[in-house]
Each structure stands twice: as C-alpha cells, then as structure tokens.
Amino acid sequence: MYDIIIIGGGPAGLTAGIYASRFMLRVLLIAEIIGGQAASTDLVENYPGFPEGISGPELTEKMLRQARRFGVDVIHERVVELKNAASNPKIVKTETGKHEAAAIIVATGGEPQKLKIAGERRLSGKGVSYCVSCDGPLFRNKEVIVVGGGDRAISGALFLSQLAKKVTLIHRREGLRAAEILEKRALVNKKIEFIRSAAATEVIGSGTVEKVKIKNVRSGEEKYISAQGIFILIGTKPNTNFLRETISCSKDGYIVTNEDLMASESGVYACGDCRQGSLHQIVAAAAEGTIAASAAYKYMSKERHTGTEAQRNKS
C-alpha cells in the first residue's frame, strides 16, 4: 500500500510527486503518457529558470527524472476507476490491476478538444492533428491550417511557420485570445495568414487531407482552402470521466476543490488542468502540484495522529 497515489503525469502530477516524496512518503504515479499537454508544446517561454525557453518534452523529462530521483514509483497504465474515495484505503483500478493508498492526487489534465466536423475523425492521423510538436515536422514545405485563437494556436502557427510553406490560421472571432507578445510575432510573420470570423466546417481528402471548407460566421459565405494538414488547437477538456460518479465535478467535468485543493471526499486532491479554476498554464499546474502534495501530507499526518490517539484510548 502506498501513502499517496498520483493519477496523471503532466507538470502538476510530476511536481506533486517530487514534493510528496520529499516528505518521505511512499508515492506511486500512474500515467498512460508522461508529460501531458505540456509534452506537446514545442517551446515553453514563460517557465521560470529558462531565459531562452525550453521545449515541453525536455521540461517534463527533467521533471520525471527529478521525481524518480526522490523515489517516486512510476507505472504506465490507464486508470479506469477510483473506488472507496470516502474510505481508507482508497483504491485506484487500472486496466491490469489495482493499487491502494491513504490519499489520492488527481492530476489527469485534459485532452484536445475536437471540432466534430465532417472528415475530422476519418482523416485523423492523415493530415488532421492536435499536436504541433508531434506532427509539425511532417509538413515541411507544405501548406497547413491552424484552427484556434489562443496561446496554443498562435505558438503552434509560429512553430509551423519555420517548417511549412504557408500557415493559414482560422479563428471564429475577430479578436485573438493569445498573449500579446505571441500575437505581435504572428502578425508580422509573412508566412502566416489570418482568416478571422470564420469556422472550419469540413475536412476533405480521399486518403489524406487535401482541403478544408470554411464558413464566415457573419455572412455565411463558404469557401475552400487547399492544405495538406490541419492542426486543431482549440483547447482541452478534462480527463475525469473515470471519477465523475465518485467526486463532485462541474457540469463541464472539472473537479471542484476547496482552497487546499481537496475534492469533495477527504484525502482526495486535484491539481492542474483537470481542476475547476485552473489557469491552464504549466507554471500554475506545477504550483498546484506543490499545494496538493503539501495538503495531502498534512491530511495524512492528521489521520495518523488521530489513529494513534484512538489506539491509545483503547489500551
């Protein structure tokens, strides 16, 4: 039995593991893939300590090495259920077995939002992508489309402009939602074309992406844009399906917590992008991982003290 099980291997989960293990607790981290959404970020420029920036995969790999150095056990599996959340021990079921712990930290992050348009699913992996750093190099000297208007979309377009022949960015609003510094860089980039107040409505291609139909959301006018790839970067949704019947979540699936990041059941904590109120930033996720680990340690210390007092009273 572990003291703490951390579900999720992004910056929030890895940081929670580092801090929990330094409290001399026995910690297990379970994640299908290490790095989370951060691992799909080509360049992280706003994480303290890296003035020249650092790639998402490199940053999360460093976090993983640090967690393992302090004794965190890591297994690569998919969690399918959280049981006995209100009891002790709490049980985490994976596809191959189960693990027990006194406290749980949920740091499952999010997964890319889909457009849910015609052709998207059929051509996924055949020109439709949700990860610039993963698939961007496949589109060297080709024409690509980026859908979205936030930080991830704009930074993705900037990265792709170094590889692709042309980048067309489609955003359904007139104004962008990205950081001003990113927006300024993109606006002066001659390889990036902006199409605003428009939505992608269909991905077309016989075997791979050939073109994308877009529609002006104001006039209703439709047209086709030739492209060999489309990167859909419109945000994420929380990976919390496995525990929504166990832990209180918002209508959108985000875990509801108090100021100590404790969820609706004592001893269960949430941090990072799966938590309601998260800033969806790597540095914020790491900070929340620290808070969750500290709160879980205090919870366990209190439970142990209560158990010891009860044992003394019996004798």
Automatic annotation (TrEMBL):
It comes from the Bacteria. One of its GO terms (molecular function) is thioredoxin-disulfide reductase (NADPH) activity. One of its GO terms (biological process) is removal of superoxide radicals. InterPro entries: FAD/NAD-bd_sf, FAD/NAD-binding_dom, Ferredoxin-NADP_redctase_2, Pyr_nucl-diS_OxRdtase_2_AS, Thioredox_Rdtase. It catalyses: [thioredoxin]-dithiol + NADP(+) = [thioredoxin]-disulfide + NADPH + H(+). Its EC number is 1.8.1.9. Coiled coil: none annotated. Keywords: Disulfide bond, FAD, Flavoprotein, NADP, Oxidoreductase, Redox-active center. Its cofactor is FAD. It holds the Pfam family Pyr_redox_2. Residues 2-289 form the FAD/NAD(P)-binding domain. Binds 1 FAD per subunit. PROSITE patterns: PYRIDINE_REDOX_2. GO terms for cellular component: cytoplasm. Homodimer. Belongs to the class-II pyridine nucleotide-disulfide oxidoreductase family. This is Thioredoxin reductase. It comes from candidate division NPL-UPA2 bacterium Unc8.
